[in-house]
Amino acid sequence: MKENNINRRTFLKSSAMVGAAGMVGTVGAGNVLSSCSGNSGKEAAIKPLKDPKDYYIPELPDLATDGKELKAGVIGCGGRGSGAAMNFINAANGVTVVALGDTFKDRVDNLANALKKDKNIDIPEDKRFTGFDAYKQVIDSGVDVVLIATPPYFRPMHFQYATEKGVHSFLEKPICVDAVGYRMIVATAKQAQAKNLCVITGTQRHHQRNYVESYKKIMEGTIGEITGGVVYWNDPQLWYRNREAGWSDCEWMIRDWVNWKWLSGDHIVEQHVHNLDVFMWFSGLKPSKAVGFGSRQRRVTGDQYDNFSVDFTMENGIHLHSMCRQIDGCANNVSEFIQGSRGSWSTANRETVIKDLAGNVIWKYDGEKERTDFKQTDPYTLEHVNFINLIRAGKSIDQASETAVANMAAIMGRESAYTGSETTWDAMTAAQLDYTPKDLSLTGKMDMKGFTVPVPGAGKTK
After folding, report:
1. 363-396 residue pLDDT tens
2. Region 53-61: what's the mean pLDDT?
3. Could you tell me the pTM of the whole model?
4. Strands of the sheet with 333-340, listed across from one edge
5. Mean pLDDT of 271-292
6. Which pairing describes strands 168-171 and 198-201: parallel, antiparallel, or unpaired?
């Protein structure tokens, strides 16, 4: 295993963001809504929020269209990387995985064994790479596509190298953990566009049919102008790894990565970014400022919080409330709610519905019909169906720039909670915030005293 110390370059001091891309819909059942205009007594026609030609709606067939054979490499062979590998293979004929990379050999071998057992795919020893530089070896091995599912801290560097080499990227979310990584992602996304590459991110709701159909309804104007929203990811505690004998400081943290700020970005970034992304996607807005709070009550390992509550002021002045928690034995809720001038949309209680201002359901996504009409309903697979179709059609897509907006929103909320201060989009996107440990070493000792739980504000004086 090759030993490396990692030093990240700060690419940009500030970055102009590409606006969040939307999706197209055609006018449909949402037109049953009406309202009074002034004192005329006439029903006002529903006004679409956007013209359909300005948005991209993915085609979501059960299987990608046959075409050029595609060889993929997987970087990060843990649970999500292994899942992405299977999703990619299940999404099309004529695709395969040919190279694997991870910091640790046992993870590479575990995925290689699963591929052999479940898909009859042999990964030879000379295509199994380990160590901090395994990503370069995978990308240099002759792959067309790379599936990047390493701990989030590493994803900007891996995306940048793949783009330099002209390789299409699937980037699991989140795609960065700090401002330095954010700017690296934005700069690399522009390079990928210039090279006509396809970049899909793991915000799978963009390929989940109930969300796509909801987006179309909202773009048709069914709930009117968006005036605010609330998004939630309140769920039990995630997994953790207790330290084992023989593990270095760095090995323990990487194996336990969802509990460490520098690796995961904290759960508001690592997990709750999904819900934040839905609001940014549907509204087409980014936050101008954030004020939040959070704390650590029950977490077992790591140095991050287990709950956050954030008030975002969007760039047009409307508000989004964000709430996330990872604690066992509490009320759970993973959903989104968006309020409009004519009605509301929500995904609570496993139902996707639109209501008018009186609370009457005027549209509901028909999940039974989806299961009748389609064999493939897994959004984790459907995002690869779309990814492969676009590559084979020679069409580029850039989801990284869009996901970066939600990712930075989560970073803003986290830093506000950590410090107790208001954060702003302009300040955070230009900040020198870099979560790279100063003594990052895979085998040596690190200063573990530096990994402390943040405490906001200032204490009382005597």
Report:
1. 999 999 999 999 999 999 999 999 999 999 999 9
2. 93
3. 0.90
4. 361-364, 353-356, 343-346, 333-340, 226-235, 319-326, 307-314, 287-295, 423-424
5. 98
6. parallel
Selection from 126, 145, 149, 129 nearest residue 137 by Cα: 129
- Transcribe 393-425 into DSSP letters: HT--EE-HHHHHHHHHHHHHHHHHHHHSS-EEH
Laid out side by side, the sheet with 168-171 consists of 128-130, 95-102, 70-75, 145-148, 168-171, 198-201, 397-398
| Beta strand ranges found along 10-94 (DSSP E) | 70-75
Q: What is the pLDDT of residues 317-350, one digit of tens each?
A: 999 999 999 999 999 999 999 999 999 999 999 9
CA-CA distance, 83 to 97, in Å (whole number)? 12
Average pLDDT of 221-250? 97
**Which positions ≥6 away from 187 have C-beta within 8 Å?**
11, 12, 15
d(CA 268, CA 305): 9
The predicted-structure confidence for 250-261, as pLDDT tens digits, reads as follows 999 999 999 999
How large is the average pLDDT for residues 429-445?
A: 95
β-sheet bridge partners, residue 43: 36
Average pLDDT over residues 174-202: 98
CB 167 within 8 A of CB 143: yes
Q: From CA 262, how far away is CA 461, in angstroms rounded?
A: 31
406 token code pair = 């939600």
Residue carrying the six token digits 């990994």: 451
Count of other CB atoms within 10 angstroms of residue 427? 16
Which amino acid, one-letter code, is at 60? L
Q: How far apart are CA 418 and CA 127, in angstroms?
A: 42
Per the structure block, which two tokens stand in for 187? 């700069």
Q: How far apart are CA 310 and CA 276, in angstroms?
A: 11
Task: Return the SS3 of 164.
Answer: helix
pLDDT tier at 462 (50, 70, 90 boundaries)? low
Alpha carbons 228 and 239: distance in angstroms, whole number: 33
Sign of CA dihedral 382, 56, 279, 271: positive
Burial of 76 (0-12, 13-18, 19+ CB in 10 A): buried
Strands 226-235 and 168-171: unpaired
CA-CA-CA-CA torsion sign (413, 419, 424, 429): negative
Cis peptide before 236 (omega within 30 of 0): no
